[in-house]
# Entry
Amino acid sequence: MTQHLLIIEDDARLAGMVVEYLEQNAFKVGHALTGQKGLDLLSNKLSASPAFDLVILDLMLPDMDGLDVCRRIRALEGPQSGTPVLMLTAKGDPMDRVIGLEIGADDYLPKPFEPRELLARIRAILRRGSVELAKPGAQKNLSFGSLEIDRNARSVSVAGRVCELTSYQFDLLVAMAERAGRVLTRDQIMEAVRGRELEAFDRSIDVHMGRIRAAIEEDVKAPRRILTVRGVGYVFARQQD
# Structure
């Protein structure tokens, strides 16, 4: 089945090149020049719009900040709110990338970029969901006290309360839950979800862990589900309330 992507980018020339390249690699691609039109397409306010499997989102748009667009995507009703977001940023400050991850982006790619790297990032994000469903026993839910992980529905709840996670954060949580009780380094966690390789001084895993904790912990200052092992990495607690 052909996967449908949406690129929200005000640089028409760049967007045209990206659309052409991705369509040559078997994707169907929609394009929006503004953040608002992208949100309308994603939320199906434009009747000809089908569902999208992933959004490529520029950080700097003429009508609104890309970070604000990402926040609004996560606030949409229905399954569209969980659409993976790959953020494009022309800014060199790593903090811009960290903020993007904190407000719900699944990954980021600095401009200028090689089309092949963009393609690899897209495939990695999309593959994470399909690989999870294909795993033996993937239909089996994971339970730790009041924490429930439904791998088929790709949803997480604590005491019946639905926890909002991005697609990537869900996969990180599942990878750790499957290895409950084991101390994992950041490299091992990244490898477990088949994500991109860590860059020097990359804080993305720490940012995602903070977001996951905010969703599933009662007190993020005293976490009891995902514990930090100083100088090593993280461990998902085997015994939980």
